[in-house]
Amino acid sequence: MKGVSNLIETVVFDIDDTIYDQQEPFRKAIQKLFPLVSEADMLPLYTRFRVHSDNNFNKVITQEWTLEYMRAHRINQSLQDLNYPSITDEESLHFQSVYEDELNSISMHQEVEKTLDFLKEKQVPISIITNGPTDHQYKKILQLGLLNWVDEDNIIISQATGYEKPDVEIFELGKKQFALNPEKALYVGDNFKNDVLGSTRAGWHALWLNHRNRQLPEGTSQIHDIELTSFEQLLPTFQHIFA
């Protein structure tokens, strides 16, 4: 753990695919609307969906694209990437509606809940920095019950700031808003570019929750302090850090 155990005083989490398993609501929406998609293609399709979402949300922030256009583009392009037929904008937005319905029933991963309980018991400050539309992400925060562990003032949603991960500026904003010392802060997220690269560039420590077993992006090195490959490793890791 690169000697991180004695350094950390505060923990900041991502939400999507970190606090809950984002693939499940996606899978259910795909199964309802696009039954041609094979089970073998479900993970690759979800991966492409995340890539198009992460790569293009900045265009919404800068108002180059509307949120509606980005949402239609990401599912249509993901299907085409796997050689499925192109779909219409109407079909794309219907998918978004069904996907959002599935997101309304998301639940926190039980290992994350155990970890948050442990951190709260240890009186470790917990915060959130997440990319995405403000209303959409806040709805997830309420559905997941995150306010039981995190104060509202300790939540940053990218659209409300004009920045997004991996921008250093959003982590600098977190530093000020959460009154934390980056040298004693650990950021926890599943996305190497957004979560690991972004936080380490800002001088934070990083825990890569790589439960999808993704490879390091080409040309990058292992800059994170900790890498976990399952949710089940979270609690023991934090028990070690805050022993």
TrEMBL record:
- Cofactor(s) listed: Mg(2+)
Coiled coil segments of this chain:
none
**Highest taxon listed in the record's lineage:** Bacteria
**UniProt keyword RNA-binding present:** no
Record keywords: Hydrolase, Magnesium, Metal-binding
- Pfam family of this protein, just one? Hydrolase
Tell me the GO BP annotations in alphabetical order. small molecule metabolic process
Name-wise, this protein is HAD superfamily hydrolase
Q: What does the record give as the organism's lineage?
A: Bacteria, Bacillati, Bacillota, Bacilli, Lactobacillales
